[in-house]
Amino acid sequence: MGIFSRFADIVNSNISALLDKAEDPEKMIRLIIQEMEDTLVEVRTNSAKAIADKKELARKVTAIEEQISEWAQKATLALTKQREDLARAALIEKQKLENVVKGLHDEQTLVEETIEKLTNEIAKLESKITETRAKQQALVIRSEAASNRRDVQKHLHTSRTHEAMAKFEQYSRKIDELEAEADLYSKTGNAKSLDQEFAELQAQDEIDQELAKLKEQMNKDK
Asked: 55-96: per-residue pLDDT in tens?
């Protein structure tokens, strides 16, 4: 059983409402589009048939109008020959054909109305299909986005991710230790430099004392 039962159901349908109620929206929208396209093919077929009927009626009208003209000419000829009986018979045939043409004109009017109606239906169906395809595209994008988010979340919760995070913590710990050692060496180096500076100051002081003694001794010797 189809989703839609007639043309009006398709044109007036609320696609969003149908998808909201569907257990599998992607499958549902594919079925909707398929039925719309099948209906469009049927309407186009009927339209083509109506156009063919219009052309056939036009040919018939032209042919009969030619016969009407011929009977009118025959009636005129009969009168010129003083054959009123033949002229009357010719006019009777002409009248019969005129009635046929009148009926054909009525058919042409109906066919033209049918063609106009089918043309409008085709336009509405094509517009509805375009609208539904846009919804299908949006649905596909949403589905892909949801799938990608699911995959990311799934990956974040895998054991490999936990292992990677554990290794990262180990590397961070090692870096912290290396930085601490570097700071320690830096402080130790500064301490040695300080000792050396004091040693130099002490040595300089001893030299100054020795120099003072020598000067004092020289002064005594004078």
From this structure: 999 999 999 999 999 999 999 999 999 999 999 999 999 999
Residue type, 161: T
CA–CA distances in Å: residue 45 to residues 77, 110, 118 = 48, 17, 10
Q: Coil, strand, or helix at residue 112?
A: helix
How many other CB atoms are there within 10 angstroms of residue 15's CB atom?
Answer: 19
Helix-helix angle 25-80:84-156, to 10 degrees: 170
**In angstroms, rounded to a whole number, what is the distance separating the alpha carbons of residues 17 and 151?**
29
75 closest CA partner among 96, 102, 93, 97: 93
Q: What pLDDT is attached to residue 32?
A: 84
Distance CA 143, CA 28 (A): 14
Q: Where are the alpha helices (DSSP H) in the chain?
A: 7-11, 15-21, 25-80, 84-156, 159-221
97 with 70: CB under 8 angstroms? no
**How far apart (Å, rounded) are the C-alpha atoms in residues 8 and 118?**
13
pLDDT at 1: 39
Residues of the chain falling short of pLDDT 50: 1
> What is the Cα–Cα distance from 46 to 49, expressed in whole angstroms?
5
**pLDDT computed for residue 210 by the predictor:** 79
